[in-house]
Amino acid sequence: MIRNRVCSLRCGLFVVCLAAGLLRPVDSRAEDASSTKPVDIGSRRELFVDDFLIDSLKNVRLELQHPQPQEIALVCDQPWEGNTCIYFRVIPDGGKLRMWYLAAHWKSEPDDPAPPHPYFICYAESTDGIHWTKPDLGLFEFQGSKKNNICVTEIDDNFTPFIDTNPQCLPEARYKAVGSKSGLAAWQSPDGIHWKRLGDKPIITKGAFDSQNVAFWDPEIKKYRAYIRDFHDGLRDIRLAISDDFATWTTPELLDVTPPLPNEQFYINCIARYDRAPHMFFGFPVRYVERNWSPSMRALPDLTHRELRAKVGEQRIGTAITDGLFMSSRDGFHFHRWGEAFLRTGPERPGTWVYGDCYPAHGLIETESKLPGAPKEFSLFLPEDYWMRITKMRRYTLRIDGFVAARAPLEGGELLTKPLQFAGKRLSLNFATSAAGRMHVEITDAAGKPLPGFTLAESDETFGDSLDRTITWKGNSDTSSLAGKPVRLRFQLHDADVYSFQFTDP
Fold first, then answer.
1. 106-130: per-residue pLDDT in tens?
2. CATH class of the 68-256+344-398 domain in this structure
3. Burial 310-341 (b: 16+ CB within 10 A, else e)
4. Comparing C-alpha atoms, which of 150, 187, 40, 157 is closest to residue 503?
5. Maximum distance among all Cα pairs of the chain, rounded to whole angstroms
6. Would you kindly state where each structural domain of the chain is located, as residue ranges?
7. Phi and psi at residue 95, in whole multiples of 5°?
8. CATH code for the structural domain at 8-64+406-504
C-alpha cells in the first residue's frame, strides 16, 4: 500500500493525492507488491509504467510519453492494395524485418476509378525499418497477373502472423496466424509466405473478430494466448483465450482494465510480452469514439469526403474518430490503462481525424537513430489517409523503454520504491536530465534507513541522457553485497526523467 506522503501520482486521467487516500497496486492480483514481503525482481528490468514498485512520490509524477512522427515508410498505391489498408504486423526475423498487412478498397467516391476487391494479405520487408520493399511473390492472380505481393486470400477480414516459439512446434508450422474467417481461424506456414488453413473450422467462435486479433506462444505459462475483440453491453472490448495446442481454446474472457471509463471502446489491442522486460505485457489498443455532427466535427479536415462516407455507409464512418492508448500488465489479464492518448491524431491536415487513425502496426522494432552516434530507438508504424485514394504508413519513433517517465522539475523531487530484492553487481538506469539537471540514488534497508556506502551523501552526481548508465557511490558501482537482501531505492531527481532501472552483472 502506498504510504501517506505529500505527493501525487498521475495515472491515466486521474491524479491521486496520497495525503487523501490510497492507490492499489495495478496488478496486485498477479504479484502482491503491497505486502511487507519484498518483491523479488532478480535481474529483470523494471519500467515506471505503473505504480507497482512505488512507495511514495514527492514532487515527482509519472508522465506518459508520446512517439514522434517521422517519414512515410510505405505507400499502398497498387491496384490490389487500396484506401483501407490496415492491421499491419511487423516481425524481426533472420536479420530482416517482415511485414504483413490487410489490403482492401472501399469505394466511397463516385469518381474513384479503383473498383472494390476482396480482402488480401500482402507482404513487405526491410533491412532497416525505414525503407520497405514489396517483393513479387507470384502466388495469386490479380487482374490477370501474379506480379504482386499478395500472400493470403479468402479471408473475411484480418490476419495476424507470429513466429511460434513453442519447442514442440513443427517446422512446417513455424509461422502461425489467426484471422477472421467465419470466426477466428488459424493458419500455418514454414516461411511466412506460403500459408495454409489449419482445419476447416474456426478455432474460436465466440467473439466479434472484426479487428486485429493477436495470438502467440507464452513461454512463461507454456500455453498459447489469443487476444480478441468482442462486445459487452454494446461496447467493443478485448478478451483473452488460452490454449495448450492452438486448436482447443478456453472461452474468451473480458480483460480487467483499470481505471474503468464509462462507454470506453477498444478496437485493436497489439498486446505482447515486452522483450526487454518479459515479465510484463504491453498493449496499444485503439480507442473508438463515436461523435455526432457538430460545429467542431464539421471543422475537421475533408468535410465533403466525411459527409460522403457517412452517406455511403453508416453515419459513424464519417463521424467516429480514433486514437491510440497504452496499457501494461504483469499477468496478461489485469491491465493498467493510461487514459490520456499515447498516440494522438495530431494537427488537423488532409486525411486525418478519421475513424481509422492511430491503428499501430503490431510489433515494436529497434531501429538506428537518424542522429549520428545516438543509441537505437523504437519504431512503430501508423497508417494515414485511411478512406482516401491511397493509404500510407508513417514511421514513428520512441525512446527505448520510454513509454512513461518518472519526472521531477528543477527544484527537485523524490521517488522511493517499495522493498525489493535484486540479483546483480551494478545498478543501471535509463534516464535523461537537462544540462542543469542531476540525479542521486540511495539504497536503504527495508525500513528506509540509508545503508553505509550507498547513501545520498555518497552518491555520485549523475546527469546526461543514457539508456544504460551505471550508478556509482564515491566511484564504487558494486552492489553485490546487497544482492538478495530487502532494500529500497530512493531517487532524488532535479529536472530529470527516469524510465527504467535494472540490477545486472557487468
1. 988 888 888 888 899 999 999 999 9
2. mainly beta
3. beeeeebbbbbbbbbbbbbbbbbbbbbbbeeb
4. 40
5. 77
6. 8-64+406-504, 68-256+344-398, 271-343
7. 85, 5
8. 2.60.120.260
